[in-house]
Backbone:
């Protein structure tokens, strides 16, 4: 019971990321920045390297984005010896769902940078991460405080459920970095998500990431296989499931069930849902069930499906956390992750991450929010380094919105800017819980963008 109580508080927060990773709303017609593209045939999409992925000729015009490239105070937060940075995240919340640890991840990466002499002769003055308590009004006031009182050069990390921070940061052209799980990371010049904009709207493109990951779970050949998609009963999740159905179709998978029967409050009685899924493929169970749900609901439905005799594969986006090792209710389940998770220390960058946490934050669990904070800080440091000694907000924004790319070999897939202001990257990895450990069953790989 202790293990479950702990992990509900830690892992339930990732439901917003699960929905965001899947969600891309229906096009509203041509949108500023849309370029040409092509529709791919089902089954023709293949996994490839984490750089150089196919963007289907999609283009984004920087002039179509909000916030601009010229700051009111271009030298804000910069001195001869330091760069002032602060964060904003929901480290606490009334429900217990948080991204606690993301602040530690950023601090760890900044501490290593400072120990190595800083960036272009400047140390990072990290003022810490403000906790909005998952309160929309506090997002606004705290974003204003960061921009106008603390006068930070950038916000790192920024991880909130809401996007109300955007207006005050946009007013002062304050760049921000994090995991792009809310719409504030989309269609503006100042937001940089480590996996791009994960909640795109009004565009004619989607990605193939989920289709490719399910294909890999099925041994590389998914043609003719079937999947069930289970979501929460709200508009965003319904749109997300529609997009997921398109993604899995690209590798030849049939979607035999795409429903949103789970109330936002969670699963109460799984019986009807299980019965529908178990007979969804012409009276038989599907090969894969993908849950786009909160942690509690994933656990309840996975357990109920197994009890009903389900022999297929379970896939979710909330089941990876080092503290879940040994959690029997999710044993053998698969989790999709948008980068290489911290368990794979054979990858040099992942080993460096683990070493950094051990040195600067010993005893901290290297959860997905912690990793997201770390890589957001790393992305910021990379961009600041490339901007050079003559650093200003304007110089950084112009650099990053003019064909800037960021990647970490073997660990974080390539983002491209300004392209990824409008859409997420088509990349992911898959881990499986096997008893007391997580195994990476599909290494980080990328597919492509496709036209809807």
Residues:
């Amino acid at each position: 019971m202790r293990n479950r109580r702990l992990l509900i508080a830690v892992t339930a927060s990732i439901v917003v990321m699960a929905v965001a990773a899947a969600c891309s709303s229906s096009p509203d017609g041509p949108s500023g920045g849309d370029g040409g593209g092509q529709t791919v045939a089902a089954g023709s999409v293949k996994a490839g390297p984490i750089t150089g992925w196919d963007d289907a000729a999609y283009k984004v015009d920087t002039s179509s984005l909000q916030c601009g490239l010229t700051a009111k105070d271009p030298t804000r937060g910069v001195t001869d010896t330091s760069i002032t940075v602060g964060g904003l995240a929901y480290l606490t919340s009334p429900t217990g769902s948080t991204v606690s640890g993301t602040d530690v991840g950023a601090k760890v990466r900044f501490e290593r940078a400072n120990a190595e002499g800083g960036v272009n002769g400047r140390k990072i003055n990290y003022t810490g991460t403000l906790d909005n308590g998952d309160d929309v009004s506090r997002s606004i006031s705290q974003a204003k405080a960061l921009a106008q009182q603390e006068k930070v050069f950038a916000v790192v990390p920024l991880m909130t459920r809401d996007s109300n921070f955007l207006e005050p940061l946009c007013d002062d052209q304050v760049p921000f970095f994090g995991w792009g799980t809310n719409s504030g990371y989309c269609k503006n010049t100042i937001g940089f998500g480590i996996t791009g904009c994960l909640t795109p709207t009004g565009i004619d493109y989607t990605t193939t990431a989920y289709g490719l990951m399910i294909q890999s779970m099925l041994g590389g050949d998914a043609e003719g296989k079937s999947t069930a998609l289970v979501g929460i009963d709200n508009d965003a999740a319904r749109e997300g499931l529609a997009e997921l159905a398109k993604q899995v179709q690209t590798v030849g998978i049939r979607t035999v069930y795409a429903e949103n029967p789970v109330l936002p409050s969670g699963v109460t009685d799984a019986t009807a849902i299980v019965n529908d899924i178990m007979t969804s493929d012409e009276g038989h169970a599907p090969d894969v069930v993908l849950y786009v749900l909160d942690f509690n609901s994933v656990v309840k439905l996975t357990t109920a499906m197994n009890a009903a005799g389900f022999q297929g594969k379970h896939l979710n986006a909330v089941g990876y956390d080092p503290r879940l090792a040994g959690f029997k209710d999710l044993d053998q389940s698969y989790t999709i992750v948008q980068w290489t998770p911290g368990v794979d220390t054979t990858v040099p960058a992942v080993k460096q991450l683990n070493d950094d946490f051990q040195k600067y934050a010993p005893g901290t669990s290297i959860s997905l929010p912690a990793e997201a904070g770390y890589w957001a800080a790393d992305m910021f440091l990379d961009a600041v380094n490339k901007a050079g000694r003559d650093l200003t907000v304007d110089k950084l924004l112009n650099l990053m919105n003019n064909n800037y790319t960021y990647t970490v070999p073997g660990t974080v897939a390539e983002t491209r800017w300004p392209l990824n202001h409008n859409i997420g990257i088509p990349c992911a990895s898959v881990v499986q819980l096997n008893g007391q450990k997580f195994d990476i069953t599909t290494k980080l790989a990328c597919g492509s963008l496709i036209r809807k």
